[in-house]
């Protein structure tokens, strides 16, 4: 469960339980007081009992006995009357819990309030003219447990619903307030992890607590330092690459002069020097063409048609493929697929993917190039016929200078920049690139690009 859900559920349950406990304690204390007349059951019956007791005082106890005999059994169970001899007027056994209350009634204590079986009860002492007396106990209400149960059944559910709705709204707002800054931080970390080091979270968290403000400031400081370090690193690589070109050019000139002297004994060594110089030239060229992410990106101000571009690229690389007795199999789409680009950047990226497929296809192999239209996007899939790449390294092959142990060796001519260039270029075109091992084939590189909207 998310942090928002845990905070919301926890606070909501706590609020509801607190409301229920408060209602329970407030009413439970009142239910046990026998003097609370508004808690009595049957106030009409109480008035009728007192009226007949007055009539019995004027006349004789038989009047009250006759009235009680005419009452239903439910009423009789709530009224007990004992004469002077201690006999119940209807010859019923007196409940043991009622005996103390009956014994407390006398000429000096003519009315008493107490609990009988936890039920509020009232006792009356009624003297007679002939010296007789009548002691009567009337169970005026129910026990506090019974009253609480009735309260729950009649009034509790509306209180529960209102408390649940009110506390739910308050807890929702509280949980949202507490979890939203963390959601913003999570979004920021994902964008930074994706390479957007210019993203700042402090403006979003402005107005929150001091601790969150300090955390946001520390986060922005960290990303600013990372952005500066990445920029310095890129500048260093570019500067070093530029500086290497000058001595490399002088080396090429000196190599040409040495070859003109026609010293046959040095030809093998000069060839080795030439290959090393060419290899270094290729590395420097790829480093200088490696796209970078940052605020210096230029707009996509050009347009290219994908079917025509792939057809032209495969035609240009046919001779290079023929050197390994490999051939291209191109399947284009019938629709016109226009993609926004910048200069020749996309052309170079797709050329790197095709060259990569040629390098790692075996002699006599084939390279499949498939172009598909998918709604507002187009997909380009290039599949070689090599041995593929281990599954654990499929994402790593897009890192600069990464080469697998099996195939990507210096002898094959690759040094781990082709796919890195392609990935960054495709990302700058708002597209995506992925690699996977195709069934019964080698490595497949799939590029997805957004199509340019055209109106007619």
From TrEMBL:
It catalyses: ATP + protein L-histidine = ADP + protein N-phospho-L-histidine. The keyword Transmembrane applies. It comes from the Bacteria. Residues 239-453 form the Histidine kinase domain. It is a multi-pass membrane protein. The chain crosses the membrane at residues 6-25, 156-175. Residues 176-231 form the HAMP domain. CDD domains: HAMP (cd06225), HisKA (cd00082). Keywords: Kinase, Membrane, Phosphoprotein, Transferase, Transmembrane, Transmembrane helix, Two-component regulatory system. InterPro entries: AbfS_sensor, HAMP_dom, HATPase_C_sf, HATPase_dom, His_kinase_dom, HisK_dim/P_dom, HisK_dim/P_sf, Sig_transdc_His_kin-like_C. PANTHER family: SENSOR HISTIDINE KINASE CUSS, SENSOR HISTIDINE KINASE YKOH. This is histidine kinase. It comes from Microbulbifer harenosus.
């Amino acid at each position: 469960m998310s942090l928002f859900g845990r905070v919301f559920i926890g606070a909501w349950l706590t609020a509801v339980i607190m409301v229920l406990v408060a209602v329970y304690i407030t009413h439970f204390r009142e239910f046990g007081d026998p003097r609370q007349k508004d808690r009595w059951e049957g106030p009409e019956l109480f008035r009728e009992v007192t009226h007949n007791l007055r009539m019995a005082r004027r006349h004789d106890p038989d009047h009250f006995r006759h009235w009680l005999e005419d009452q239903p059994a439910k009423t009789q169970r709530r009224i007990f009357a004992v004469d002077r001899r201690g006999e119940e007027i209807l010859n019923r056994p007196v409940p043991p819990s009622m005996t103390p209350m009956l014994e407390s009634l006398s000429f000096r204590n003519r009315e008493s309030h107490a609990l009988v079986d936890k039920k509020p009860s009232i006792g009356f002492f009624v003297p007679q003219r002939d010296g007789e007396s009548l002691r009567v106990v009337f169970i005026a209400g129910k026990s506090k447990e019974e009253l609480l149960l009735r309260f729950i059944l009649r009034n509790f559910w509306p209180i529960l619903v209102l408390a649940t709705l009110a506390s739910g709204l308050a807890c929702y707002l509280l949980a949202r307030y507490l979890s939203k800054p963390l959601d913003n931080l999570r979004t920021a970390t994902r964008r930074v992890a994706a390479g957007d080091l210019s993203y700042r979270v402090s403006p979003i968290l402005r107005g929150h607590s001091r601790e969150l403000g300090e955390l946001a400031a520390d986060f922005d400081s960290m990303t600013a330092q990372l952005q500066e370090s990445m920029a310095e690193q890129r500048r260093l690589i570019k500067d070093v690459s530029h500086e290497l070109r000058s001595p490399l050019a002088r080396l090429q000139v000196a190599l040409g002069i040495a070859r003109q002297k026609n010293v046959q004994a040095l030809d093998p060594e000069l060839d080795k020097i030439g290959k090393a110089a060419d290899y270094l030239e290729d590395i420097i060229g790829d480093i200088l063409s490696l796209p970078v992410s940052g605020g210096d990106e230029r707009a996509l101000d050009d347009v290219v048609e994908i079917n025509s571009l792939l057809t032209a690229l495969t035609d240009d690389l046919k001779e290079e493929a023929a050197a390994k007795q490999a051939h291209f199999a191109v399947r284009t789409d019938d629709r016109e697929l226009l993609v926004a680009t910048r200069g020749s950047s996309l052309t170079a990226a797709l050329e790197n993917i095709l060259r990569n497929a040629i390098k790692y296809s075996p002699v006599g192999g084939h390279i499949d190039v498939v172009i598909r239209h998918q709604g507002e996007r187009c997909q380009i899939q290039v599949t070689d016929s090599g041995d593929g790449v281990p599954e654990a390294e499929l994402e790593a092959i897009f890192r600069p200078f990464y080469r697998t142990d099996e195939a990507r060796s210096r002898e094959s001519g690759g040094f781990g920049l082709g796919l890195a260039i392609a990935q960054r270029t495709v990302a700058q075109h708002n597209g995506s690139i992925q690699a996977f091992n195709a069934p019964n084939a080698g490595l497949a590189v799939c590029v997805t690009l957004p199509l340019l909207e055209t109106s007619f």
